[in-house]
Records
---
Amino acid sequence: MERRRLGVVTDGTFEAGLTVRLDPGCSTEDLRIGSFVVVEGRSHRFFCTIADMRLQVTDAGLLADPPRDASPFVRRTLEGISSYATVQVKPHLMLDISKGVGEETPVEPVRTIPMHFAELYEASGVDFATVFGEERGAYFAMGTPITMELPICLRLDRFVERSNGVFGQTGTGKSFLARLLLAGIIKSKAAVNLVFDMHNEYAFGAQKEDGGWVKGLRDLFGPQVLVYSLDEAWGARRNVDVTLKVGLNQIELGDVLLLAEELELSPTAVTTAELIYARFGSDWMKRLVALDSGDSEALKGFCDLTGAQSESLKALQRRVKRVAGRDYVREEVAFSAIDEMVAALDKGRHVVLVFGRHDTPLDYMLVANIVARRVRRLYQEKVNRYERTRDEADRPQPLLITLEEAHKFLSPQVSRQTIFGTIARELRKFYVTLMVIDQRPSGIDPEVMSQLGTRVTGKLTDQRDIDSVFTGVGGRSFLRGALESLNTRQEILILGHAVPMPIILRTRQYDEGFYEAIRGRGEKGRDIGEDIADLYGD
Amino acid sequence: MRIGEIIETSSTGFVAESYQLHQPPALGSLVKVKVDDEREVYAVVSYGETGGIEPGRRAVRWSTDEVFDEAIYEEHPELRRTLRTEFTALSVGSLEGRETRQGLPSEPPPMHYSVYACTPAEVVRFTEELYYLRLLLAGEGPVPREQLLVTHLREVYRARGNDGEWLSKAAREIARLLKRDYDRLMTVLLGIEPHSMD
């Protein structure tokens, strides 16, 4: 194995990791926080990441009077001997090499540390392949290490087993990451997807920052992907399968409470809503909206029935009418559209719900909550039936729901009121998990964050956001520096359930090469004419 | 070339009187003693001194306005018999048959035996290994150890034909040996910088 030796282990504890004294020829500038490195112990190979770096001298006299004006000869002599560097490395996994390494030798979690003078090496292609596996089936390449052209895989089967987070400050390409993951999941059939596409990015093509176009999931996978639209006019110009409407009968109290901030509901308004709901149940929105508050008799009657204050009632009604007045809202809508959506998911199809022009937080939160709630209810019934019949045919298809602006649904204030909070907390009890996409992970309830299995994150600089990404992940604080060091566009850190150890990658490109790889050999795929028709109509 | 005769000898080295007055081997240079057909002891010149052969007798001034320096010796030829030059050398290794060993010799070199200057080829062969530098650093003598190292490294550098690579290697070995004493290390390094030797 052609691997560059970097140094030797001189100190360490199991808890804190190992201290490696770098060889004189090796500079700290050759290395990077978060890089994958390998320590060769006597009977184990340890797979580690670089956690910290430190400069040292053998005599403090050198610090007081450094060789500023010394000749290159003197400086070269001192370098690496009188002045040297150490790096802290954290082992994550180990391999028993005492009896020779075969294909079957399992990579295990680390249970011991090497003795003094074990050697540290750069990781080779073989090391990466040993730990991360090779591309096949559920092993999906997300990118390459910074220094190598080698595809590194994330396990999609493990990815969908839990809820996950895709994070990164604005401009770090979270939608590209989401597209990669969704395409991989669809291709490998790890789960069925329901995507709440707030900015119309995922179904059909979208325009990149630099003006080029990228394909959407419908472009890549054709009729396997169903497109639902909230915006009839927008949908009419495109190849949309179903236009969704929302009925007042479908809006529950929790939906309005979720929108308290968007609608600027005062605490009194909230109480009023609760009173009305308590009196009228599922009819409450219809009744509230229908009330003619100008008619003082009707108003008084309503207040008597519910116990609400007339002024508060009128204020609430004004705000609620903002919702009722949306284009896609009707008085009464059957749940069958959503039920049919679930039936399609059951048959292995994927659904993208695009919001068209209705891309305000209000629309997004209202509709996503209503749809997801119905979907989850159906899933709960399915799972209950499956548990009764134990018939494989009744087994639900694992469902991954993609949710953007997640902090609006999962902040500590509202996470208990949304169905998404419930889904995140119940792990995969009802075969439903979430993929949350957000640039402000600090806005998400820490309890929810700690339930996220895998975190795929681009650069973050806000300390609170960085802290929150590591919520619920033990001993990973040393990767904070790595997260800050990512470059804005192309680099990500992946950690958690779907990868054996944390890894920094240069993200795979979502381009022609990717489209071909996803389509597989021999499939013709869709041509540009079809793409244009989808985007612009005829 | 015979340059002296041993007049004192011990485990750590010897004192020799040079054949020519005022011409001891260079400080820091490598010299050797042929103990027998098989063995040679190598040593580094660590000190030199010229004085009267009678102990305790101090030199007096001989110069006048007209007669000084070399002319004094023309005027007073007996001086060449009453003065002698001695040098001290620290043992650093030996050649046994074909094998070079670095370390103290098992016996002191024999009294009254000749001391030879090492040829450049002999210097190159002996100094391939640098372990002997530890002996120089640990030895005792009136010359400060750093200065001895400086002169020695310069001598070897020259004998090896201005071998910069060897000098760097030796410098790094010195840096290891003096890692705890930056000031002493710098005294050596500043003394052996290549440009200062051109």
---
Amino acid sequence: MAKWVPSGELDFDLRPRTGAASGGAFTRESDSVVAVTIAAPARRAGSLSGAAREDMFVGYLFVLPTLLILGTFLIWPIIQTFWMSLYNWDLLSQERTFRGLQNYRLLIDDSDFWLALRNTVYYSVGVVPTQTILALLVALAANQRIRGRTFFRSAYYFPSISSSIVVALLFMWILQGGGLADWLLSLTGVTPPRPAWLSNPNGILELLVQPLGWSLPEWAIGPSIALLSVMMLNIWSTIGSMMIIFLAGLQDIPRDVYEAASVDGANSRQAFWSITLPLLRPVTLFVVIVGVIGTFQVFDQIWMMTKGTAGTTTMVYKIYSESFGGGFRAGSAAAMTAVLFAIIFVVTMLQLRFFGRREA
Amino acid sequence: MATVAVPRRQAVAHTQGEEEGPQIAGVVAYIALVLVAIIMFVPFLWSITTSLKTNPEAAQFPPTLLPRVLTFDAYQRVLTGAPFFRWFANSALVAGLVVLFRGLFCTMAGYAFARMKFPGRDALFMLVLATMMVPATVLFVPRYIVVLNLGLVNSLNAMWVPFMVDAFGVFLMRQFFQSIPYELEEAARIDGASRIRMFWQVIVPLALPAVATLCIVAFQGSWNNFLDALIFISGSNRDIFTLPLGLAQFQNFYYTDWPVVMAMAVLTTIPIAVVYLFFQRYWVEGVTHTAVKG
């Protein structure tokens, strides 16, 4: 049995070989082979219906587990979300009462919901551009031909593979009052924030305008120091995987494009702005979309580090506290889930529309 | 299959900045890389050294990197204060089952979607693809109800049954199978092999590198899965906890006892670090595949 040996690691572009290697060579050999090739189509035509029937049967058999699992644990829950959002249910009893759109209507007046939404937007707007730009810079640096390149890549990626709980613990230790972060800050002469990072509810915009004697309305104080701390953690732990994606994109840019540019007298800065960046556009789009979807789903770190206190309640944390985290209002939580779905969908579509179109 | 060669990307890698001031660009890049590496590594390094400190020393300000007195006391307290091995075994069992079934089911579905003709195939594939866009994390409330109705809540089964398949895996495998030449299957067919035999004897051996990528992604997801553990099994007695849930609960009890908490964190990280060291290549491929080629 011939074994296919991959030429490179996971080289997916193994194309059917053409020319003499395929069937064409047979007919020239001898009459008997000609006879075989003539006979073969007839035999295959006869067995094709059998093969087709087999394909149909085996095909369904092969996709059945996938459809069953995805249907039960993903597609059905999606449908359930919308259905449940019309009911009142405490997650424990058998009793469910129909409420129509009441759960949605109540969200409009729920200031905690708006706070969660606002925090999620802060989170996303703060984290995604920062991690995208940093990851690109790190990828550009790691794409240089220098010693230890592989080591650096592995090192950067390591936080991405670690458990979110472990990473949260590391940062809880770093950010505790009198911890590493405070010490590093005090070395630069800056007074560490009090209360300590993760328990500090003061908004950063508020802190900025405070010296001027101004005060801001509650909704405009900006993300709290605590939320900012979790955002920093998120940036730190995600840069690695974003960098790997950028690196792959960088290495897919054909070398001759740069050579042609340098023949035309372009320096490396010009090459970056007019070759690298435009050609990376699809990859950047992917990184941004994945980043936005990821930040809209942040939960583990919030649960672990602040339990939603000090101005760190985000959408998924709010959905959790509305349901399992003590609220036991499954209908209302489902309504929030539906709203979050809609937001993620619209934001993703907008990104595809505005940033995806100009590519190619 | 010991034939996997050098990562393709590195083989064809090119570098920038060679044309103009290669030394300066190189030095700047190098300093930047070292700085970032320090930022990435220091928290882990410090967690290891903290786990080897005595309690008073760990609470010192300013914090010291290296322990003055080296002690394994914290590790001993983890192993006696929590059913660590139990949690470890639970996590390993669950991750093993997820990897096994996901490897199998995604490969089967990917092959069927790539190579077999049956009515509704493309529509079904689009459906699978569409689920990739859904932020599944958010679904824990309705998912809980399904898991509850199936009688899986507060049992370890809740941690692997729902995760036996994921759309990304199916997509990855379909991409892979589309790149395999038809001749191999035709040869097997002429030999009279059935589809199923062909699948096991020709297709699966070819697909092993891609399956490895798939399995790594599955392992990482399962090993680190916290939210589902919190929703599905945190109400049970702690003997069926998985490691992330156990670690989170452990921290609740020992929250000021940093050496113990860090020791537990280190023990939780070691298995995934080992897997990462051995299978890095597949891991990276899993991350980049959809982004660049998808």
